[in-house]
Design brief:
Residues 1-5 have low confidence and may be disordered. Helix content is 27%, strand content 34%. It starts with 8 loop residues before the first strand and ends in a 5-residue tail after the last strand. A hairpin with a 2-residue loop joins strand 2 and strand 3. It has one domain: Aminopeptidase, CATH 3.40.630.30. It is built from four helices and seven strands. It has helices at residues 18-31, 43-49, 98-112, 127-135, and strands spanning 9-12, 55-60, 63-72, 82-89, 117-122, 139-150, 153-163. The protein is α+β, with helices and mostly antiparallel strands and 168 residues long. The chain has a seven-stranded mixed beta sheet.
Length: 168
C-alpha cells in the first residue's frame, strides 16, 4: 500500500504505457459519459498534445490501472499557468482510490510547476468524477448547457477548476 491506501504505484506516463493508456481512454469513451471524443487518439496525437511533465499512470506491476494528463488551454502567454486535465481509470480498477491518487499526484506536479489553474469540463451524469474533483478541492464554475452534440444528443458540461494554493 502507498500513502493513498491504494495498491498502485503512481509513476510518469511513458511510451511503453501507450497501448494500455489508450485502451483505458477508449473504455471511458465507450461508456459515454467521459468525453465528446468518439475514438481514442493515436499515440502520436496523444503524445504531442499532453504536457510531458504532467503525465502520470497508476501501475500495479506492469498493468496500467489509470492515467492523468494535462494540456495547455491556450498558447497565449496570459494563460501560461492554466491547463485542462483528464483522469481516466480502468473499469476493473474503480473504487480503489486510483483516481484520487492520480489526481493528488497530478495536482502536486502542477502546483510545483507554478500552474495556477487546473480546469476541466465534466458531463453532469458523471457523478463519480464530479465527487472525486470536489474532494480534491475543485469548485464548479458553472454549466455550459447544450454545448455539444454527442451521439445525436445535446449534452451539458459542468466546468470545474482548482486554483493552486501555492500561487498568491
Amino acid at each position: 500500500m502507498n500513502a493513498t491506501g491504494t495498491a498502485a504505484c503512481i509513476a510518469p506516463l511513458r511510451p511503453e504505457h501507450a497501448e494500455q493508456v489508450l485502451a483505458i481512454y477508449q473504455f471511458g469513451i465507450d461508456e459515454g459519459n467521459a468525453t465528446f471524443e468518439t475514438t481514442a487518439p493515436t499515440w502520436q496525437a496523444f503524445d504531442t498534445t499532453k504536457l510531458p511533465d504532467h503525465r502520470l499512470v497508476a501501475l500495479d506491476g506492469g498493468r496500467v490501472l489509470g492515467w492523468a494528463a494535462v494540456v495547455p488551454v491556450s498558447d497565449r502567454c496570459a494563460y501560461a499557468g492554466v491547463v485542462e486535465h483528464s483522469v481516466y481509470v480502468h473499469p476493473d480498477a474503480r473504487g480503489r482510490g486510483i483516481g484520487s491518487a492520480l489526481l493528488t499526484a497530478l495536482l502536486a506536479s502542477t502546483d510545483a510547476a507554478g500552474i495556477w489553474t487546473v480546469q476541466s469540463g465534466i458531463f453532469p451524469e458523471n457523478t463519480a468524477s464530479l465527487a472525486l474533483h470536489q474532494r480534491a478541492g475543485f469548485r464548479v464554475i458553472g454549466t455550459r448547457e447544450r454545448i455539444g452534440l454527442h451521439h445525436g444528443t445535446w449534452r451539458d458540461v459542468v466546468l470545474i477548476e482548482r486554483r493552486s494554493p501555492t500561487i498568491t
